[in-house]
TrEMBL record:
<keyword id="KW-0489">Methyltransferase</keyword>
<dbReference type="GO" id="GO:0032259">
    <property type="term" value="P:methylation"/>
</dbReference>
<dbReference type="GO" id="GO:0008168">
    <property type="term" value="F:methyltransferase activity"/>
</dbReference>
<dbReference type="InterPro" id="IPR025714">
    <property type="entry name" value="Methyltranfer_dom"/>
</dbReference>
<dbReference type="InterPro" id="IPR029063">
    <property type="entry name" value="SAM-dependent_MTases_sf"/>
</dbReference>
<protein>
    <submittedName>
        <fullName>SAM-dependent methyltransferase</fullName>
    </submittedName>
</protein>
<keyword id="KW-0808">Transferase</keyword>
<dbReference type="GO" id="GO:0005737">
    <property type="term" value="C:cytoplasm"/>
</dbReference>
<feature type="domain" description="Methyltransferase">
    <location>
        <begin position="154"/>
        <end position="287"/>
    </location>
</feature>
<dbReference type="Pfam" id="PF13679">
    <property type="entry name" value="Methyltransf_32"/>
</dbReference>
Amino acid sequence: METLQTLFNDIFSTGELVRMIFSGKRKKSLACTKVTIRPLKISGKSCFQAERTFEKKVTHENLSESEAAALAMRLVREEFKQVNIFTLSEDLQVLAAKPEKPRITTKPATKGMPTLEHNREKRRIIPEKTPCDFLVRLGVMDKDGNVIQKHYSKYRQINRYLEIVEDVFSSLPKDRTLRIIDFGCGKAYLTFALYYYLKILKERDVEIIGLDLKEDVIQFCSKIAEDLQYDGLQFLRGDIADYTADYADMVVTLHACDTATDYALINAVSWNTKVILSVPCCQHELFSQIKSEIHQPMLKHGILKDRLTEYLTDGLRGLKLEACGYDVAMIEFTSLAHTARNIMIKAVKNANAGSSRAERAQRQYEALRDFYHVNPTIDQL
């Protein structure tokens, strides 16, 4: 046992360990199938991370040098018969069916040292430390590009939104000025972000209209757009259901309440819009309609009924868009810690979708609608 103790002490103290893998269970009943130990840096401090692999989960534990050496000894003595050790100078294999008489073989090193930083800085489309005019004006950044701490969640949301826009950018027309309509823009953090991304970063000609019911919001946003010389950005007061246009290449609707989302989707489809990004909010319409004998024991609880009707509403919307020739994905828009309304419907027009797929989506829509005895506004599509 002294041989292994000395080996582990040396490996964890030299700073050359790349990875140590324990395998070959001593008992079939052992739930853990593998343990991997690797060096790690967290906030600039060195440690070792032990990763335990189970059938349906993985756990992690951060350890000091002495704790890692002690764990390695215990794993060999009690749980595993084989250890593969990769260091910068050599690879070692330990066969320890009898821990007191281990067989150790070595060969030249095969692996280099990976990055040890656990908290690597995430690449953001709008980076920190670089002043961004609309974020400074809206109070998210200071004039030096530092994100104001209380607005950090908004900063992350904006970048997450732009990551989604970047993902669909290739689906937008390339031969003309882009026309985009943002229904229910509110204070327009994301409307300004969209203009900044397309006009300034991607150098596309754009016409973006932000629509909202509140006159003070429209005046506030219009003044900022004028001051920043965002000439292709316009804010109008109006209702989503009544708005008319010839076409739109992208329609955005973020947290439009209840059936306002449906009217935005209906307009978008009628304009043959290429990209739709919609984050619904307050889906109340089906709450009073839904009926299901098999689900009644669950539906008698208001909070469960509310959540089920939210998912049903968005599921029906997604199927209806698929029936109209869109590729649809339901994605997480932002963290649940920021808002519970965090599901985005991302729909991209697919000219090659085929009629059979659209017909199948329509049948699925009708089956789901009829099963729950509902009549959603999106049925107008």
